Amino acid sequence: MPACWKKLHLLWAALALAWLVLPSASSAKPREYEGPDAGYLVYSVGTVRIGMHFDFSYRRLSTLAGAAAEDWRGKIEPKLGGAIYLKVKDPDFTGEETGHVVVTRLPPGRYEVNSFAFAGMSARGSVHWSPAKPFALPFSIRSGQATYIGSFMRAPSLGTPLQAKLGAAGFFVVADRSTRDLPIAKSRLPAGTAIDDEVTDVSKFGSEVLRTSQP
């Protein structure tokens, strides 16, 4: 590769990385339900090796009995900080994965996580990524109980076997980290709250972007 093209390639990679770490204008604090019949949603969210913004969206589909229910939506997104947002702010755990354990009150019902989104740069300009194929991670919220839906981490694809396929887009590791997450969650839940494990195995979707482990 000619030196000038190599420099241009490195410049675009740097721009892509800089854009990927910028946060959205939305708040990382999920919407809280104040009703007396609330249940609890538990998950962890963060990044692998370097802070990068993203969000997964969830919504209520119906009551537990399957009847129509008031729409209720939320987002799973990391809390980033620092001058250029390269770090998770005040993490609950650190290491290869760094992030937070989130406990939030929701109205009872049947829910699903059904979308993700993040932005970045390519040689053609800014790009917005979202899933090409539909997917759904279902879970239920029960009054007075908690439901754990797993760990949501974004990892960089640069320097991995996925680099040629994904470029600077990165990928997600969605996995069961209950051994790490639940002791933290229990300290934030009312004493004696039962916790159901409803982690979806995302490998069944056959996606390079949704993975249960790093490549």
What this model shows, in words?
- This protein is mainly beta.
- It has one domain (3-211).
- It has helices at 3-20, 163-166, 178-186, and strands at residues 39-48, 55-62, 73-76, 80-81, 87-88, 97-106, 109-122, 125-129, 137-141, 146-155, 171-175, 195-197, 210-211.
- The longest helix is centred in the first third of the chain and has 18 residues, at 3-20.
- 32% of the residues are buried.
Structural class: mainly beta
**β-strand number:** 13
Instruction: List segments where confidence is low: pLDDT < 50 over at least 5 consecutive residues.
Output: 3-27
Q: Based on Cα principal axes, name the global outline.
A: globular
Tell me the strand percentage band. Answer: 35-45%
Distance between the termini: 27 Å
How many helical elements? 3
- The H/E string reads HEEEEEEEEEEHEHEE
- What number is the mean pLDDT? 84
The portion of residues assigned to helices is 10-25%
- Gyration radius (Cα, Å) is 18 Å
Taken together, the total number of domains comes to 1
Largest sheet: 6 strands, mixed
